């Protein structure tokens, strides 16, 4: 069981309103003056904006602003013309107040008092745009960073270094709890993009534990469209160093975060792996639910970075110290376009002991388009052990072993066993996918079913799980096992779905080969044995062609045409899609351009003809004195060209091609004008 406790924000007594009416860094009507006044006013004050002028109003901050020492609401949406976001899959907010820190030398707004709100601001070029050093604060509706960096630029000064920093070495003796970044309401969405370091960073190793932070509904490393990587050059999108009770995303559409991150690409940063979410094992009680990682807000657009992002969720144990990590839930996230989906790393101490996080429950996540593996628990490849006694990341929980997956009569039956600890109960999840990672693990692209099993005294539990009909393009089945302590296994090796009636998964595809070359067609299919296989050419059976692969050697012209595959057994028959074989035959010139007698200022018509077996269509290119004078793309095997009136000597050649074979060149015809005769001359232009 996972219990995450979040305290409702306490609203203090209302105070005074202070109005910002100028973009000046200081003086009457400035933001700096309003912050100073609010700190001296009891109760929760508000800073509102009414700066004259249309469009964006930029306040350039040249020195550190006053720390917020008394509860305060800073409302950028109060500026005339501004409005909060109202869209689900993009951010349509209008923010007309921007704070510009110029050079990232200091933090922007530092919140030392609790019960404060920062809303509707644009902030860039600060060390941290917003630094939270107290409890029960809200950052909502802001744009923190820069949206349109120069393509290919590594100038991190365009945005902030960090978007929102909560706690850290600043706050060694402070109680920091119950802060919220974003929210489940659409108008609470923050866009945190184009920053040099982590867009959001919670706590620090060795510092006070940051408690009960909620990060909901934000675009992080993603621009306002929700579909394009912001070209950030920094660390992981969300970095959790020392924290407890962290809630990242929710099961609601409006509460999910959309995350993207690139490997660092600026001077002074090491090449350690970066991630959508990076958690150190000094944290505990982390919930990661319903987020899109590496996928745009529309659920399909790939958030590809200039350098492909590394890992969706990374849990690190980077040093020798106490392992506090437990009670982590990674559930219902959509991940794609990265190297690994989820990776719980192991650290081997100088004494040789293995140290790693445990109790990481990985449930119902859909992962696709990863390079190496969708889930890595400790080591890149992990095998089951007898009795499941080995220790490491997630106690190296054994994975299920699927013996078969059979689809028939509108249902899918999955059979197999789990070998793990004796007399223990496990939660199994089954997935299907259309592709396989490089380590042979199937992509969990579709959730299939869940089942509870209990092992016997030998540590063995068999399972037979039935689910509804499945799109058989997702033909690779895999599974995970989670024990009572929340330790989830790696995804099991892939098992191909099998059907009773014949089914073709991968159909033969069109081929084009040269005359006399080899050609082949293949298909991937399944069906209960005995399975009869018959290839056909233009609807007629091919003698002896009874395998899923068809090889044709020394292809002849008459073998061109349509090929398909018929599969049959006692449960039925099916035919593959048709594939076309094109046998490319090079054109050979049988009629060269002829010499003719012509008077001065008269035209002649030249012609060329090729063999009637040449593959169509043909391209005829007529050239004179190294210049193209006419082209013809034709389904005929002859071409005609009428010369202009002849005033002087001219010669012509024709280049003939069919885009399938090497081009051929005619002989040269040279014209002698003023009554002289045409004559054939060897050579070409």
Can I get a quick summary?
1% of the residues lie in helices and 41% in strands. The chain has one helix and 57 strands. The chain has a 17-stranded parallel sheet that branches.
Oligomer: single chain
Helix content: under 10%
Rounded to an integer, what's the Rg over CA atoms?
35 Å
Biggest sheet, in brief? 17 strands, parallel
Beta-strand share of residues: 35-45%
Low-pLDDT segments, ≥5 res: 1-11, 150-156, 264-271, 675-685
What gap, in angstroms, lies between the N and C termini?
Answer: 83 Å
Topology:
Blueprint: E1 14-20, H1 31-39, E2 44-49, E3 57-60, E4 72-75, E5 97-100, E6 109-111, E7 117-119, E8 122-124, E9 128-132, E10 138-140, E11 143-145, E12 162-166, E13 180-182, E14 191-193, E15 200-202, E16 210-211, E17 214-216, E18 219-220, E19 238-240, E20 243-248, E21 258-259, E22 275-280, E23 284-289, E24 292-293, E25 311-316, E26 328-331, E27 334-344, E28 346-348, E29 354-356, E30 360-363, E31 366-377, E32 401-408, E33 411-419, E34 425-433, E35 446-454, E36 460-468, E37 476-482, E38 495-499, E39 503-506, E40 511-514, E41 519-522, E42 524-526, E43 532-537, E44 540-541, E45 549-552, E46 561-569, E47 572-575, E48 579-584, E49 589-591, E50 605-610, E51 618-624, E52 627-634, E53 638-642, E54 650-657, E55 664-665, E56 668-671, E57 679-681
Describe the structure.
- The protein is mainly β and 685 residues long.
- Among the domains are: 503-583, Immunoglobulin-like; 589-681, Immunoglobulin-like, CATH 2.60.40.10.
- Helix content is 1%, strand content 41%.
- It contains one helix and 57 strands.
- The strands form nine sheets. It has a 17-stranded parallel β-sheet that branches. Strands 1, 2, 4, 7, 10, 13, 16, 17, 20, 23, 26 and 30 form a twelve-stranded parallel β-sheet that branches.
- It is flat and about 105 Å long.
- The termini are far apart.
- The relative contact order is 0.06.
- Mean pLDDT is 87; it is low at 1-11, 150-156, 264-271 and 675-685.
């Amino acid at each position: 069981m996972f219990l995450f406790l979040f305290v409702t924000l306490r609203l203090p007594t209302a105070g005074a309103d202070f109005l910002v009416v100028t973009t000046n860094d200081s003086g009457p009507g400035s933001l700096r003056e309003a912050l100073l006044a609010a700190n001296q006013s009891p109760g929760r004050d508000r800073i509102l904006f009414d700066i004259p002028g249309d469009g964006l109003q930029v306040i350039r901050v040249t020195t550190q602003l006053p720390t917020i020492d008394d509860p305060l609401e800073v409302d950028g949406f109060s500026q005339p013309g501004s409005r909060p976001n109202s869209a689900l899959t993009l951010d349509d907010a209008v923010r007309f107040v921007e704070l510009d820190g110029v050079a990232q030398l200091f933090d922007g707004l530092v919140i030392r008092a609790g019960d404060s709100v920062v809303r509707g601001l644009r902030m860039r070029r600060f060390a941290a745009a917003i630094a939270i050093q107290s409890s029960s604060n809200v950052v909502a509706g802001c744009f923190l960073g820069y949206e349109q960096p120069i393509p290919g630029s590594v100038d991190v000064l365009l945005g902030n270094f960090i978007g929102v920093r909560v706690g850290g070495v600043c706050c060694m003796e402070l109680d920091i709890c119950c802060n919220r970044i974003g929210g489940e309401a659409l108008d609470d969405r923050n866009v945190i993009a184009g920053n040099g370091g982590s867009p959001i960073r919670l706590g620090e190793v060795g510092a006070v534990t940051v408690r009960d932070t909620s990060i909901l509904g934000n675009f992080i490393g993603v621009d306002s469209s929700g579909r394009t990587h912001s070209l950030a050059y920094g660390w992981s999108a969300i970095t959790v160093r020392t924290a407890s009770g962290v809630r990242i995303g929710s099961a609601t559409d409006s509460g999910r975060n959309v995350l993207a991150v690139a490997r660092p690409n600026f001077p002074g940063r090491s090449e350690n792996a970066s991630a959508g979410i990076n958690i150190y094992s000094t944290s505990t009680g982390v919930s990661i639910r319903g987020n899109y990682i590496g996928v745009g807000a529309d659920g399909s657009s790939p958030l590809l970075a200039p350098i492909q992002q590394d890992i969706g969720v990374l849990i690190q144990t980077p040093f020798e110290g106490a392992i506090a990590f437990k009670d982590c839930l990674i559930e219902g996230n959509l991940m794609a376009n990265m190297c690994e989906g989820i990776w719980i790393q192991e650290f081997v101490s100088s004494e040789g002991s293995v140290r790693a996080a445990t109790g990481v429950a990985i449930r119902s996540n859909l992962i696709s388009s990863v390079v190496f593996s969708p889930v890595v628990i400790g080591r890149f490849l992990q095998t089951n052990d007898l009795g499941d006694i080995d220790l490491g990341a997630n106690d190296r929980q054994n994975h299920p072993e699927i013996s078969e997956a059979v689809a028939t009569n509108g249902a899918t039956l999955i059979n197999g066993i789990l070998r793990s600890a004796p007399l223990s109960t496990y939660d199994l999840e089954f997935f299907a996918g259309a592709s396989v990672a490089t380590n042979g693990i199937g992509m969990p692209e579709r959730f299939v079913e869940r089942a509870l099993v209990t092992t016997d005294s030998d540590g063995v539990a068999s399972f037979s799980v039935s689910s509804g009909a499945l799109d058989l393009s997702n033909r690779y089945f895999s599974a995970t096992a989670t024990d009572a302590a929340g330790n989830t296994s790696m995804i099991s090796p892939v098992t191909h779905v099998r059907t009773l009636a014949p089914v073709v998964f991968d159909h033969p595809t069109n081929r084009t080969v040269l005359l006399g070359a080899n050609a082949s067609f293949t298909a991937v299919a399944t069906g209960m044995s005995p399975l009869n296989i018959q290839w056909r050419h233009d609807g007629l059976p091919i003698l002896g062609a009874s395998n899923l692969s068809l090889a044709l050697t020394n292809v002849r012209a008459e073998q061109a045409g349509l090929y398909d595959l018929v599969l049959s057994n006692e449960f039925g028959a099916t035919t593959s899609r048709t594939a076309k074989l094109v046998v490319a035959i090079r054109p050979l010139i049988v009629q060269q351009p002829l010499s003719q007698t012509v008077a001065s200022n008269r035209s002649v018509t030249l012609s060329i003809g090729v063999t009637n077996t040449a593959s169509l269509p043909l391209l005829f290119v007529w050239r004179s004195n190294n210049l193209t004078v006419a082209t013809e793309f034709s389904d005929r095997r002859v071409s005609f060209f009428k010369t202009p009136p002849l005033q002087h000597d001219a010669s012509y050649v024709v280049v003939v091609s069919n885009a399938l074979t090497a081009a051929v060149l005619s002989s040269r015809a040279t014209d002698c004008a003023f009554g002289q005769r045409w004559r054939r001359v060897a050579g070409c232009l």
